[in-house]
Amino acid sequence: EKGEYRHFMQKEIHEQVRSLTDTLAGRVDFDKGLIQLPQLKLTAETARKINKIIITACGTAQHAGLVGKIYIEKIARIPVEVDIASEFRYRDPIIQPGTVVLSISQSGETADTLAAMEEGRQKGAILWSIVNAIGSQAMRVADGYISMQVGPEIGVASTKAFTAPLVDLYMLAVLLADLRGTLPVEQRKKLVNDLRMIPDLAGKCLEHEPEVMSIARDMKDARDALYLGRGINMPIAYEGALKLKEISYIHAEGYPAGEMKHGPIALIDKDMPVIALAPNDPWYEKMASQIEQAKARGGKVIAVATEGDKNVEHLADSCLWVPSIPWMLSPVLTVIPLQMLAYHIASIRGLDVDQPRNLAKSVTVE
Ligand code: M6R
């Protein structure tokens, strides 16, 4: 039931306060600073044996994987590759003893993701999944899994099933590092404690919906849009662009901002809105200068920025505000205004938001 909302997508965006609360419940012991993921069945012995993790997924789930790479490499210092499932399955990938294949899937029934898991199984990988649909194939065939605690997701555009796996991957990184004995206690406690504020801060992002709607009204007739991000927020540029294109049918591209001068900057003019992810993270200065460069070429810049950031407010034409948060968790927040932006643009354009043309919720064919 949609309740007070016009579409399931809008309802699911708003459900993120609850889904993020449920994602933490029972997994995080804030007093001891410990993470538990029992369904993963991960022992210290296995954790120490892992020498590579290959994350494989499609669409939005793959974008979550790109953020997860940074978590696992930064916190657990295990090399991670992220592969689109439809590529991985046909590439004869290298899997050695100690390789984990970790797939991420809301439905747990995506054909390419299941085939990638099968490829991993054949080659002797340890198989893990992060899945929403209980009892789905991706859950059943895995050696261990993390179940997303988000409830059914009806809208074709994935929202709450994106933010939950981000937190799952962060928790996984902390657990791996802890079991491998490489994470100093104080650092572990800090990383775990940082999770505490996530649901509330997601709620603060939602409070900015009226401003997002006014930016959506300005952007509704755009033909193209460019989403730029760097580092941990680069995958959020991909995700923001995917949300916009799939439900509003506006052509959008997500790009690593550092690649602009290698081609895409040629596209910038007054008719090309540039959405720049510039929260308070280690790539902030680089993004600020990227905004200046886009402005210098006549671009119209909408920045995703931290509340109270006068510098970005001054540089950009308008801002989508997110509250301040430790940088590693920033993608959980920065994606929320972009979900709302895509939703409101599609809704103003009178489109069938929950059931966009040519798309299915679960892609069970190749
Ligand atoms: O069910 P899955 O998570 O495996 O689905 C993967 C993609 O098909 C899915 O994320 C798709 O990209 C969404 N429509 C994006 O909003």
TrEMBL record:
It is found in: Cytoplasm. Its main location: cytoplasm. It catalyses: D-fructose 6-phosphate + L-glutamine = D-glucosamine 6-phosphate + L-glutamate. The keyword NADP does not apply. Its EC number is 2.6.1.16. Keywords: Aminotransferase, Cytoplasm, Glutamine amidotransferase, Repeat, Transferase. The keyword Cytoplasm applies. One of its GO terms (biological process) is UDP-N-acetylglucosamine metabolic process. The active site is at K361. One of its GO terms (molecular function) is carbohydrate derivative binding. Residues 43-182, 215-356 form the SIS domain. GO terms for cellular component: cytosol. Homodimer. Catalyzes the first step in hexosamine metabolism, converting fructose-6P into glucosamine-6P using glutamine as a nitrogen source. This is Glutamine--fructose-6-phosphate aminotransferase [isomerizing]. The gene is glmS. The chain holds residues 249 to 614 of 614 of the full protein.
